[in-house]
Amino acid sequence: MDRDTFGDYLRTRRARIQPRHVGLPTTGNRRTPGLRRQEVAQLANMSIDYYIRLEQARGPKPSRQVLNALSRALMLNQDERAHLFHLAGDTPEPSSRIATDIPVGVLHMLDSLVDTPAYVVDAKYDLLKANPLARALMGQGEMAQLCGSPNMMRGMFADPDAAQHLRDPDKARFAQSAVADLRASAARYPDDPELRQLVEDLLRVSPEFGELWQRHEVEVRRHLVKRIKHPKVGLLELECQTLLVPDRDQRVIMYLAAPGSVAQQRLRALRETVPG
């Protein structure tokens, strides 16, 4: 365990958090930037003496329970939490449940993409949020078959017409990639009951899902070309780009048109139909 670096890391993480961020009142003159040591100890449910010894590189090697408590108290994201564990000479255990809360920064980004269809899914492909242009694109036509359910995997495979839909090469590629991504998620979250139930349900009702699942392919989807036939603006050939949100293991999926293309013109025409 690198005690000196561990203590320095605790100090820098503590200094960046304001009391209001963790629900503590701001009273009196605070000479300390960020939280006080006793406030971190209180939030982590440990003695102030023990926390001071950790910061001053004098404490014993902290247990996983202590590391998890410090991660919560200091509001560490996934990467920061992993770093804290590594500094302590330990390996962070994976989260047992899939996160469904979207970071504020991702919500702001989604709202700012007024000319780009974009939506957020979690690690089991629950549709968490879509911006207005994505809803206009998904509300009808080809995309409706993907998002007719709050869970996109159910929308793809639980549909009685799934076999017919998946004859389309674009849809087949999307489905293959999505199942490979879901297979990777199942390995990361073996104890998530909703993910386990999703896989069991799809294996029961969809031979197409079962065939793809049994391939044991693993992939985090990042790029595909998608052709969408929209009843108002016609056929759009769009580049489907996926941005990963590591803190929550979520995906921001965006549909981009090539500059100067017919798809860009048609996407702009669709944008004109979106209120606001």
Automatic annotation (TrEMBL):
Domain of life according to the entry: Bacteria
UniProt-listed CDD domains: HTH_XRE
MmyB-like transcription regulator ligand binding domain residues: 105-270
InterPro entries: Cro/C1-type_HTH, Lambda_DNA-bd_dom_sf, MLTR_LBD
One Pfam family named in its UniProt record: MLTR_LBD
GO molecular function term, any single one: DNA binding
Name of the protein described by the UniProt record: Helix-turn-helix protein
Species lineage: Bacteria, Bacillati, Actinomycetota, Actinomycetes, Glycomycetales
